[in-house]
Write a structure and sequence with these properties.
Strand order of the largest sheet: 5-4-1-8-9-10
Radius of gyration: 20 Å
Number of strands: 13
CATH superfamily: Ribokinase
CATH architecture: 3-Layer(aba) Sandwich
CATH topology: UDP-N-acetylmuramoyl-L-alanine:D-glutamate ligase
Order of helices and strands: HEEEHEHEEEHEHEEHHEEEHHH
Strand content: 25-35%
Shape: globular
Number of helices: 10
Low-confidence stretches: none
Mean pLDDT: 91
Largest sheet: 6 strands, parallel
Helix content: 25-40%
């Protein structure tokens, strides 16, 4: 016999049901995630390495583009502002986004740039699960000043109809501080939240609504190891105050999440689902997508964080760069 939903579960499900009413803008580094699958056929005579027989190659949206894909999968209307190259990887990336329903009119397509591409080689015996053995990155040249004004115009145009913004900074040049401040100041005037996901420069993004670093990133930013939960509590509050955020959500893998807000004690959120993930590729994009979309639906930070926790628990059980649907999120809440 299935028990009736609790008040918290009903509230969370009500938030998810409003996801299709929201429009989200993603600004950042679009990446082509490429997966090359092969079966081990024999050992090379030239060197002590396996020879793989190629089975298939799959290219899917990664980075800021994966964040956009997660938002669409959750039911939102999504626009993406970024830069891709006029190359095979860029064309495959845009095709995947458009097929999913992402508005790509904010993307700059340049013949002068190579699309940032992360190639993952996955190998295994003929009838076994393929495992990632190495990753090869193709990184485009840094963006020069020629791109700044076109990107700014696209951001200002797309912001007008948006209910929230995600800045997805993978350190490839799109989400620079100049453009991020344009986003922040315009969004503040419009009264909508702006969330930041920056892998290396979060300390430079001040005055935004919130961010979703993981525990390792917090240690790197503060330059110290956090040996206990109390250390993390102190560090999280220190970082939130330093950056001037209304809230800070720190993800902790199998230990769940910790939410920090002004004048409120840290909220500990236990992990949901299996403790051993299948694949954590792109999980951070899923977390910030669900978190932002909930905030755009006027959810509290704690309810938004709980939904992000459910979404993260679902996506790490999927292989490759994956996403979560609204129905999956509702099912997870009810379980």
């Amino acid at each position: 016999m299935t028990s009736a939903p609790t008040l918290l579960e009903e509230r969370l499900i009500g938030i998810v049901k409003r996801f299709p009413e929201r429009r989200i803008l993603v600004v950042g580094d679009a990446i082509a995630d490429q997966f090359v699958y092969g079966a081990i056929s024999r050992v090379s005579r030239e060197a002590p390495v396996f020879i793989l027989r190629h089975e298939q190659t799959e290219t899917v949206p990664g980075g800021a583009a994966n964040c956009a894909m997660n938002l669409v999968s959750l039911g939102a209307s999504v626009s993406l502002v970024g830069v891709v190259g006029e190359d095979a990887a860029g064309r495959a990336l845009v095709k995947g986004l458009e097929m999913a329903g992402v508005d790509c009119t904010g993307l700059l397509i340049s013949e002068k740039l190579q699309t940032t591409t992360k190639v993952r080689i996955l190998a295994g015996q003929l009838h076994s699960t393929r495992q990632q053995v190495i990753r090869l990155d193709y990184e485009g040249a840094p963006l020069n000043s020629d791109f700044h004004e076109p990107l700014r115009k696209r951001v200002l145009d797309k912001l007008q109809a948006s209910d929230a913004v995600i800045i997805s900074d993978y350190n490839y040049g799109v989400a620079g501080l100049e453009l991020a401040r344009v986003v922040r100041d315009t969004a503040v005037n419009k009264g909508i939240p702006v969330l930041v996901d920056s892998r290396f420069k979060l300390s430079e993004f001040e005055g935004f609504t919130s961010a979703t670093p993981n525990e390792d990133e917090v240690e790197q930013l503060l330059g110290k190891q956090l040996a206990s939960v109390s250390d993390l509590e102190a560090a999280g509050e220190e970082m939130r105050e330093r950056l001037g955020y209304r809230a800070l959500l720190i993800t902790r893998g199998s230990h769940g999440m910790m939410l920090f807000q002004d004048t409120v004690a840290p909220v500990h959120i236990d992990a949901v689902g299996a403790l051993e993930p299948v694949d954590v590729t792109g999980a951070g994009d899923t977390v910030i997508a669900a978190y932002t979309l909930a905030l755009a639906c006027d959810a509290s930070f704690s309810d938004a964080a709980r939904l992000a926790n459910y979404a993260g628990g679902l996506v790490v059980m999927k292989r490759g760069t994956a996403s979560v649907t609204g129905d999956e999120l509702v099912d997870s809440v009810l379980r």
